[in-house]
Amino acid sequence: MADDGLFPRRLGIDTYQEPVAYLRQDSPVCRAEGFNAQSRVRVSCGGRSVIATLNTIRSDLLAPTEAGLSEAAWRLLRPAPDERLCFSHPRPVESMSDVRGKLYGRPLEEAAARRIIRDIHEGRYADIELAAYVTACAGSRLDLAEITALTRAMVDAGDRLDWGRPRVMDKHCVGGLPGNRTTPIVVPIVASAGLLMPKTSSRAITSPAGTADTMATLAPVDLDTRGMRRVVEQEGGCIVWGGSVSLSPVDDTIIRVERALDLDSEGQLVASILSKKVAAGSTHVLVDMPVGPTAKVRNPEMAQRLEHHLVATGEAMGLAVRVHTSDGVQAVGRGIGPALEARDILAVLQNREDAPGDLRERALVLAGEILELGGVAAPGEGLAQAGESLASGRAWDKFRAICEAQGGLREPPVARHRHTVVAMHHGTVAHMNTRSIAKLAKLAGAPADPAAGLVLAVRLGDRVEPGAPLFTVHAESRGSLEYALDFLANHPECLSVEEDLI
Amino acid sequence: MADDGLFPRRLGIDTYQEPVAYLRQDSPVCRAEGFNAQSRVRVSCGGRSVIATLNTIRSDLLAPTEAGLSEAAWRLLRPAPDERLCFSHPRPVESMSDVRGKLYGRPLEEAAARRIIRDIHEGRYADIELAAYVTACAGSRLDLAEITALTRAMVDAGDRLDWGRPRVMDKHCVGGLPGNRTTPIVVPIVASAGLLMPKTSSRAITSPAGTADTMATLAPVDLDTRGMRRVVEQEGGCIVWGGSVSLSPVDDTIIRVERALDLDSEGQLVASILSKKVAAGSTHVLVDMPVGPTAKVRNPEMAQRLEHHLVATGEAMGLAVRVHTSDGVQAVGRGIGPALEARDILAVLQNREDAPGDLRERALVLAGEILELGGVAAPGEGLAQAGESLASGRAWDKFRAICEAQGGLREPPVARHRHTVVAMHHGTVAHMNTRSIAKLAKLAGAPADPAAGLVLAVRLGDRVEPGAPLFTVHAESRGSLEYALDFLANHPECLSVEEDLI
């Protein structure tokens, strides 16, 4: 009976990225194949197939002739109405023996890295297997040769862009600092100086905004490779979402599990960053690395080790990497959340007086380094040249041209509900927990509600009077606003004012 | 709205041991709490609560007022008809930082081991977190102090039996060898010699039969602690299923993930074995360790390391441990599968001429060692004394008495369908892959169909003629039989006959 296949049923169950299939426990296929709950199964349909985790059904949720699919499995299989689902045992995940080898002390060689990345790419790894892989590489377990092998394997798993130019500039920020949205300022400065900067950015996974989320409030970002190429050829740069271009595609899968486990692997981090850059066809990369107690890179020692790995692995991959460490003790700019960050960006690009100075300064420093790295500014002169591009309006013109080429510049949305938090006493703004601040903006609705988030009215070291505004929470619904304020009541560490002792 | 709670709905979805909760994606609680697919959530009901993984529903599977539970979540929460489910964020799994510490090179100290084991026991670890923990301890990553800390933490997580006797004997077999079912022979020999041997055994997880599965075809094994105590006080021994007694309860959880990953952790293995023994109130333990290329312990070096860890950790826990290594190159006895193994056991206990000699020999050697370890046989005389117990019928009498005390001796069931595989040519039985043989027995239906499995007609080294029976597959349904034979067609390594060269 299994040969005839089962009717596909979209159950509407969202299991995030892990494909799940549902079979009645009393179905002939479960019995014949010896499938149990949590078995890994291969589900085929037409010429397509997917490896899924099985959940068995002990109720009438499914008819005896049906098999269910989770949303992720449905997306991957896309069964047509007349198609049937067939189930079989997947071949064993042979590269798990490479993972075990690494665990038992064998170095991860290039062939092993390729096998692992290929199996992850083909969706053969269950989440627990991904967790084992990520754990096997955690901390400082990968040496330079292993990181390079992994980077190469990750690049080869996806597409690779070629711009036919000797210098293709790129930047990357390690570990988000809320509001540190420099890319939309840096790209037009660099592009208007005649360098190529085809920038792909990500959407937020755990943060209140990714660069793609912020940029999406200003212009369309969902361009495919052809669309992206057209914009870059016309304007010398773009700021698009990397999700519709398949660059180092296993990266997202690996990062998802690392985040869920809150596990850092320095080697995997380097491979993740550089594989995306190599695949994007970049030749010169500036890495922005904020260092601070609540940032991803917590201290100078870790920063130094990471810099060494990034530069050396880059070299092995034919990529010039420069690392810029910066202060990561507080959020950057005023807005946190897609639209609120977009407003800061516009203020900087338009040379407005109320533009946040720290965001402007950070963007100029990074742009200046890229201008030097790209050879269009002499050493030590990049910063001034970047400043001139901004002051003259050239950067703003280029930004508008890029937005138009991507589909049209637009006005960021505005939130319906606001609540301003004020100081209760005289004092000095003493601490900011950037993780809690990010959480607060997320609870207010960012990034799903693009107008949601918060706007800081103060910076560390500012002196405040009782009643002075500290920050304003923006939300699209009263519920989200209240939820954020509830969190705040229990998390005073978001922003703390130390009372004056005098 | 979340405060009023949602109507519990049993969806009948079996996700094995991981509790899963289902909420409509558009439900106020998802929005208010910021829950997404794969979020970890705390589900409360009456005074009970469980940590579950969330799947969100994008269909009408659930009404807006309902929340769904998987079978595992339903079992743990047991909602009454008038009760409602409330959802909240679980407190962070703080012991994951101990797992990360171990990964980053910090030794696992006793307090950390306790925190980890407590969180696993309370169901706070998602499967990927369990995978990370298991991976962090994989291979030889745990030293003696860490193994002892872990063993102690695992014991303390569950109940602990006390028999009020200075010597309580126990045995354990490391890594199954198909058909190696010595316990039901050893226990009556030891008990009839006046020693206490309250044996708890497990059901099969990945093998065609566990001792509890085999024993269940001969007598009831589902006794609770009180019932077990009554049998032991009356007969000096028992052979019951350990599942209804809560001894080192996290062990099953950890083993499930280790098996799914096919990861061995020597330290975790030692802690798993010894924690169950200490919790069972045992004082003297004999460990049977079959060594062979397709067994769990693959070579003498690994056997030696394990023996050292077992003995030294046992010492730290106040447990006398003796290790007996044995040959693990082929299956033991003739039958593989619950009822078929039970028949071998009966043949040995009844001193029947057709009793498999290897099973008899193995059981006697182990029983003899336990008699010496327990001080009722002089060194070197245990084997003879065990043989005498068997030959005289004392062991058989004791076995019957134990079965009666457990609820009554019964006849093992017989399978409806059989297929005998014969030799195709003259030759010698040269190789047996014990893992493939186990797989074959499982595909035939064991252990769910207790009569299913296979009966070997030959042993390694036997010379066979064309047409001579090699083994017979037993199955309850034609479908299972054919499924096993299909597997066999593609896996000739199960049992291979080398052609004579003369």
From TrEMBL, chains A, B:
Catalyses which reaction(s): thymidine + phosphate = 2-deoxy-alpha-D-ribose 1-phosphate + thymine
One GO cellular component, as annotated: cytosol
GO biological process, one term: pyrimidine nucleoside metabolic process
Molecular functions (GO terms): 1,4-alpha-oligoglucan phosphorylase activity; thymidine phosphorylase activity
Residue ranges constituting the Pyrimidine nucleoside phosphorylase C-terminal domain according to the UniProt record: 428-495
Group of enzyme by EC: transferase
Keyword Glycosyltransferase: yes
Keyword annotations from UniProtKB, A to Z: Glycosyltransferase, Transferase
EC number: 2.4.2.4
Pfam families in alphabetical order: Glycos_trans_3N, Glycos_transf_3, PYNP_C
Alphabetical list of NCBIfam families matching this protein: ARCH_P_rylase, PRK04350.1
Family assignment from sequence similarity: Belongs to the thymidine/pyrimidine-nucleoside phosphorylase family. Type 2 subfamily.
HAMAP family: Thymid_phosp_2
Protein name: Putative thymidine phosphorylase
